[in-house]
Amino acid sequence: MADQQTKELVKNELLKLRQNYKPFKVRSDPGKFPLIFTIVFHPTHQMNVDFEGVQLRITIDEDYPIGSFPVIDSVESLKTQPLPAGLLRKLQTSLQNQCRVMYDRQTREIKVPILLDLLDWFDRNCASLVMDMQYVESYMAENADGSSCRRYAFKVGLVTEQSSSALSSISDIVSQGGQNNKKKASAETGKNIGNSSKTHDEFNDRNSNESDQEELSSDEEGDSDDDDDDDGGVDGSNVMISLMHAPLSLSIGSVSEEDVGLAFEYIDLQGISVIECSELSILVLCSRCQKQIPVRNLSATDTFHCECDACKKEISVTFHPVPIINNDTDEDADKSIIGKQWAQIELSGCAFFDTLPACEFRALCFECSTVNLVGTLRPRTHNSSTCRKCHKDLDIVFNGIKKQELADLAKRLSASTTKGKTSPRSNQKKKATTKVQGITEGRPLPNNGTCKHYKHSKRWLRFSCCGRAFPCDICHEEQTSDRSIFATRMLCGYCSREQPCGDTCKFCQKKLTKKVFDPSSRKKSAFKTASRKSERQAKK
């Protein structure tokens, strides 16, 4: 019964692919497996890159989706718009890796088709995948209302004819990895992919790196005069990291309940086309003993591993940067749901608690498309700098940072995009878990910011020595080995908004401190003996 239901789901998925991604052409023998077909993908989201679409060649086996996942044989450019071969290889590798991730994240009991979710993920992240500064160049365009905007087009010198032999060799190795994965999945369903798929990834990465180095070397020879005016790259690279690596797929089953996202409540960019976070610093809580663990200077796509000192629980944190493009509008349904998200964090064995102010950001200049290090950002103030190449003014203003539950975002996106789509339900009962409520603006702090040392101080102090927030200096000395430095910023205990230190919150207007001993309160006490001085003076 389960196999029949799975076959029905695969059939419905193929019918939807035939209906939504035309032309749909079958390349293999009819009625035989593996099934090989091609579809044409056109982006539906608004983007500031001149990208028409690509043709995907996909192979699925007979035991899909229980025993194997789809294989992306090749990504080819359309006749109306030839694309660089290096970019096509990058898209193929990104789609194949995301397909493997979506397959591995499904439980053993529930295996559903993932091709539609994969194409939805590709549609949402198409701008960040395609807008690679190695292959595109910017130009000024005019909108319908007469205003000017900056758009990106593919470099003419990099658009070369793709080698059919190279694509066929990559396709053969990918198919071999899929067959090995099929054999291993039949013996042990739901496990990770074998070593053969890893060799395929290494082969793709090696070929991609070699081609990219050849293209970059040719560009450097032709543009040697322009490089003399540049004073060096940012952190050894002039490429936006978030545009090289695609973010997570926000689909049901692809993200866990612990994964969170960070987004700006409001952001205004002046002189900047793209902004990203290059290094993340956060504070997490151990899910077993609730001990605070700082994670500092975590680079993009890197994973932080540690062991809790108190309970010895394994903890891992992975950071995925998300680019914020200045030309993006909130009219799109997905953009209105996701918002100005700039980070996605995968958590295991811990829960997100707070964002430390040591996060490093980088910005792409609107005029010359140069990557600039803007450093740490402060809310509700102008974070100003200048471009290191054209010396234009760069300015960033944002109100605050809010936490997003990626699982909730996936449910909202699924409800808005896939209506009437059903998936088999598991008979197992979900365990009741209590989510750790981190520091979120608009919500009160734990115990309204009080502690055992100061029960009338309803605020947390942000110490500049470690960047963390504590209710008082005694709590800071007990939990850290840093030397206490006088704090100049605080978090309101009622609304959790960061601001300069004071007795009253300038946002919610509530008093945060109270004197324990007030001599004037004695005069209003009910137990105070009434004075009879006026009666004695009247008798005289």
Secondary-structure topology with pairs:
Blueprint: H1 2-20, E1 25-26, E2 35-41, E3 54-60, E4 71-77, H2 85-104, H3 115-124, H4 126-130, E5 136-142, E6 148-154, H5 164-187, H6 195-222, H7 224-229, H8 241-244, E7 260-264, E8 267-270, E9 272-286, E10 292-299, E11 303-307, E12 314-321, E13 324-325, H9 333-338, E14 340-348, E15 350-355, E16 360-365, E17 371-375, E18 383-386, E19 393-398, E20 401-405, H10 406-417, E21 459-462, E22 469-470, H11 473-479, E23 489-492, E24 498-500, H12 533-539
Antiparallel strand pairs: 1-2, 2-3, 3-4, 5-6, 7-14, 7-20, 8-19, 9-10, 9-13, 9-15, 9-16, 11-12, 12-14, 16-17, 18-19, 21-22, 21-23, 23-24
Helix pairs in contact: 2-6, 5-6
Structural summary, described in words:
It is a single chain. This protein has 540 residues and is of the alpha+beta class. It has three domains: 1-227, Roll (Ubiquitin Conjugating Enzyme); 230-419, no CATH class; 446-521, no CATH class. It is 27% helix and 26% strand. Strands 9, 10, 13, 15, 16 and 17 form a six-stranded antiparallel β-sheet that branches. Strands 11-12-14-7-20 form a five-stranded antiparallel β-sheet. Helix 5 packs antiparallel against helix 6.
> In CATH terms, what is the fold-level topology of the largest domain?
Ubiquitin Conjugating Enzyme
CATH architecture of the largest domain: Roll
Rg calculated over all Cα atoms: 28 Å
Estimate the strand proportion.
Answer: 25-35%
What best-fitting shape do the alpha-carbon axes yield? elongated
Q: Under the CATH scheme, which class of the largest domain?
A: Alpha Beta
Q: How many domains would you count in the coordinates?
A: 3
C-alpha termini separation: 108 Å
* Mean pLDDT metric: 75
Structural class: alpha+beta
Low-confidence stretches: 160-236, 328-333, 420-432
Name of the CATH superfamily of the largest domain: Ubiquitin Conjugating Enzyme
Which range best describes the helical content: under 10%, 10-25%, 25-40%, 40-55%, 55-70% or over 70%? 25-40%
Biggest sheet overview: 6 strands, antiparallel
The number of E-state strands comes to 24
How many helical stretches?
Answer: 12
